[in-house]
Design goal:
It is built from no helices and 15 strands. The protein is mostly beta strands. Strands 2, 4, 6, 8, 9, 11, 12 and 13 form an 8-stranded antiparallel beta sheet that branches.
Length: 241
């Protein structure tokens, strides 16, 4: 795996315990392209002087055999005042499954937004003005599907979402079934490879195909890729049976 540098921030990081820790050694790890806030949007108004945004790499690489990949998720305070307690969520959709986020806690399955398959919450005690915090993300990507990732930045109690990037897709329109790894671009819908190395005429139907993704205790408001409206958070009913 490529080396990762963590940016020092003012204040202490509230370290969450992992409910599950899954750390992989990766055979596919390309140099990440320039960081991008593509697919990001301000949601609830942040405190005065606080400007929170996130970035994802422009390029990642997926091992064609193991489906493993890694990337860096970064949250930044571009304002003139400290953020106070906030948290970053890292949520996977469709073919992209988040396996681990360094220093973060796994979101329980019952509290994930409908349509997502995985997620981690990263509490930050304070992000000083002009500073950023980066997280190493381990994931898998099923190249037979489309895949998306979402980065909401919330108040520490989860009641407000100040910024949300995604769900934004990673993908390629030029699959490489016979290569060791496939490079994927941020903001690109994946064109899956059919059995035998052929590309199908249309993408498989993935996701829930609805406008609303209610979220449980994680409390994130998720914005649909390519849709202007927001998926506001609400408590999901408990599952039975």
């Amino acid at each position: 795996m490529s080396s990762r540098r963590m940016t020092t921030i003012a204040g202490s990081l509230v370290t969450a315990s992992f409910s599950t820790v899954m750390i992989f050694s990766f055979t596919a790890s390309a140099d990440e392209g320039p960081a991008s806030s593509k697919g990001g949007k301000a949601v609830d108004e942040a405190p005065a002087g606080v400007e929170l945004t996130t970035t994802l790499p422009g390029t990642i690489s997926v091992d064609n055999s193991s489906q493993k990949t890694d990337l860096t998720a970064t949250v930044k305070n571009g304002g003139s005042k400290d953020s106070g307690k906030i948290r970053l969520l890292v949520v996977g959709f469709d073919g992209m499954t988040v396996k681990n986020v360094q220093g973060c806690s796994q979101i329980a399955e019952k509290d994930l937004p409908e349509g997502s398959n995985s997620g981690f919450a990263c509490p930050i005690d304070n992000l000083a003005a002009g500073k950023s915090k980066s997280y190493a993300v381990d994931a898998t990507f099923d190249l037979d599907k489309t895949g998306k990732i979402c980065l909401p930045v919330q108040a520490g109690d989860g009641k407000k979402t100040f910024w949300q990037q995604g769900p934004v897709p990673f993908g390629t329109t030029n699959p490489s079934p016979n290569a060791p790894a496939t490079p994927l671009l941020l903001g690109t819908d994946n064109k899956p490879v059919a059995p035998g190395g052929d590309t199908p005429g249309e993408l498989p139907k993935t996701g829930v195909g609805r406008d609303l993704l209610p979220l449980g205790a994680a409390g994130a408001s998720l914005m649909a890729a390519g849709v202007a409206g927001l998926w506001w958070s609400q408590r999901r009913p408990q599952r039975t049976g």
